[in-house]
Amino acid sequence: MYKKNLKRTLLKLFIAFALLSWLNPALSADEPNLFISSATLNSTQGGYFLNAEIDISLSDEAIEALDNGVTLIFDTELKILEQRQWLWLKHQYARQLTSKLKYHTLAETYQVTDITHHHHHFSSLWAALLALGTLQDIPLHGLTLSAETELTGKLAMQLNIEALPLPMRPLAYITPGWYLRSDPYLWPITP
User: Fold this and answer.
1) Are 67 and 188 in contact (CB under 8 A)?
2) DSSP one-letter string for 67-115
3) For residue range 114-141, what is the model confidence (pLDDT) as tens digits?
4) Proportion of the chain in helix, strand, coil states, percent, rounded to 5
5) 117 backbone φψ class: left, alpha, beta (φ>0; ψ -120 to 50)
6) Interval 40-88: pLDDT, tens
7) Are 110 and 128 in contact (CB under 8 A)?
8) What is the pTM of this model?
């Protein structure tokens, strides 16, 4: 009797863990992600410009949706934070940059629409992802920095699940392959 109950309990625990690992992207071992390898803020007489390199790898679900005509929208969030001794961080600047990845079936090309709304066409997914992850000389209008403050840049990128077609969203919320996001990348800024 004791062994039979133990087997049932272990089986229930195994099924519960398997279900949780399938539903929870944090427990998934093969979760694809985005990795920010570098980010800099350059100053010129014309203002400040953002440069960043982001390695993007898509899940099988995202690639299948892309090949079936679904546009994938990626949001890149930039924040400039002021370090303070006694209080929490002060947000000096915040901007959300949106870029799109789309597959054209008839032309068999991938289209990347960058944050400046320019369209770039590529014959391979690899080239399109490389272009999507390269942020080069992005102007940051309205940004003024003071040399007396200690500043930190924070950059993060994620796939916007809310921008998917409505019938796809419920499954995207519970499928780990749709949780494409980077860890925040922090770097010191010297004005």
Assistant:
1) no
2) HTTPPEEEEEEEEEEE--SSSPPEEEEEEEEEEEEEEETTTTEEEEE-T
3) 877 889 999 999 999 999 999 998 888 8
4) 30, 40, 30
5) left
6) 998 888 788 999 999 999 999 999 999 999 999 999 999 999 887 777 8
7) yes
8) 0.79
Kindly state the tokens that stand for 124. 């391979």
Strand order in the sheet with 119-122: 119-122, 109-113, 90-104, 72-82, 151-159, 185-189
Asked if residue 54 lies in contact with residue 135, where contact means CB atoms within 8 angstroms, the answer is yes
- Per the prediction, the chain carries an average pLDDT of 85
Instruction: Tell me the two tokens of residue 38.
Output: 């570098």
Place of tokens 């985005």: 34
Question: Scanning the structure block, which residue is given the tokens 């390695």?
Answer: 55
Contact residues for 190 (Cβ-Cβ < 8 A; gap 6+): 151
